[in-house]
Write a structure and sequence with these properties.
With 41 residues, the chain is mainly alpha-helical. 63% of the residues lie in helices and 0% in strands. The longest helix is centred in the middle third of the chain and has 17 residues.
Length: 41
Amino acid sequence: MHLDLTPDQEFFRETTERFLRDRVPPEELRRLRDDEVGFEA
């Protein structure tokens, strides 16, 4: 079974990671995770 990402998949992964890190810092994600209310959609 071949589990390596293709170049396109790797590009998508990296781009998505940067986008989310810039807009929703890990600290905010942790805060939302630990909040009883969670997040508002």
